[in-house]
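Lab meeting notes turned into a lecture example. A postdoc, R.K., suggested we walk through two folding results consecutively so the class can see how the record format repeats. The first protein's sequence and structure tokens come next.
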Amino acid sequence: MTEQGHGAPAEGPPVHPVQPVPTAPTPPTPPTPPTPPSASTPGPPVETVKQHQRLSPLTPFIRGPILLLAFVGASWDNVLVDGDLGSTGLTVAVLLVAGAAYGLASWLVTKYWIDDVELRIDTGVLFRRSRRIRIDRLQGVDIVQPLLGRVFGLAELRFDVAGGEREGSLAFLPHGEALGLRRVLLERRDDLRGERPETPAGDAAPGQQPQERVLARLDLGRLVGSLALSSEMLLVLLTVAALAVAYGMTGSFAVVGGIVPALLGLGLALARRLTASYNFVVAESSQGLHISRGLTSLSSQTINLSRIQGLVVQEPLLWRSAGWARLEVSVAGYESGQGEEAQASSVLMPVAPVDEVHALARRVLGRDIRSVPLTRTTRRARWLAPLSAWTLALGQDGELLVSRRGFWVRRLDVVPPGRVQSVRMSQGPLQRRLGLADVVVHSPPGPAQVRGPLREAGDARRFLVEAVEACRDARRTTGQPSFALIPPAPETTQ
């Protein structure tokens, strides 16, 4: 008997069941390999360097030009005249070979890694050193190309971290690799902070170099003119005049021999300013303001607008007839001080027409700083500052704190209330007798310093109260902790 499907029994001869035909077993389907991410596949915005990387193998040749110059300077006369290297030249040659060997060993042991949260740099030949830099603490990643680095297409990466310290560098990498590594670090930093800016239309997608829009470019003729009208050039002219007078009176330069080194130092300072500001360009991209400059040594710097703590517009006396000014900014995490490197990292425009400088300032702060009303100090201040009292002015409008001062170099300092750390009012003995007081606005280190010296005591107190209230409102808006107003003491208020 056979079984049939559901339905009525069939009539006719019996139906024999069909035997199944044996077939080969179907092989199991291999798992589908994961599809590698493409440019259109969403994924992590920044790749990490899991395996250690090395610097360029040409690094020892870039680090050794000083020893090479020393070798040539010590032995060239003996080589040309006597045909012999000489003992001094031979010693320097040995040192040169030893330095090259040490440079090669240093290159072999120098490695770097990038993981999810930190950059690791291992260095040291005799003493090993491993430096760990948290990526979310990076404030700036600058690219510098010295003259020999440009010849070989190499660049150095310099890292500035929170606190105003320079935390290591990578010297040297191929220039294209340095650009890519800076992009990786900045994007990773923004991701860790949750500050990744939205990519505007027409800008580069994540993983690509952002497109830039030039905001300002320094004219070479204006740069040369600004150096000709600088205080250093004035000192050079006065020194040359003194040499001429001394030679006319004595017939010899021996009596003024000490002036010659000073003259050479001033000339060298002017030359450094010319080469450092040559081809100065300010551009804008999704990462912030990009600054490139340099003649013999190229430097590339990116400033995030959210890290700018204040700015200062400077107008030297010799520039005012030409209508020129200089713009500097205080950037959180960048080193501060009077050194050349610290000053270069804060310059946003070395020299430009006043209107162009204020246009850049408006791009940084989002408004015209000249619209803030300023009030001059009282006439009684002339007793303590007879030459500069008429230049002193101070004001605020709830969005910006502004001060103006200076005769030889007139400066306009601006700090947003949200960047202020404290406000202080103080009076000395003579100030108390004249009814005057000083007001100081403390902000992060940098060139921007809002000061109100020799203010009428009542005006100083009112400015103090209004400034503290503006700072409290700004911090309340951004969610930052505020500070309270301490009841004013007879002599000092803060």
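The second example is placed directly after the first for contrast:
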Amino acid sequence: MHTNRKKINKAEWLVPIGLILLSVVPVVAGAARIAELPGGAEITPDNARFFASPNPGVSLPGVGG
């Protein structure tokens, strides 16, 4: 049985892997921020607006109205 599989070289994987690695930083930072908000983080002038809201800083695009 003969299959026509294209040999994939390493250069073709650089862009997808690079994009995935670049997305890791904001995902980790966002998860840390979300975990910090309900845990009673220190309120400073820079972050007071997040604590003034009844639902601080969590939104999901495309969910709800």
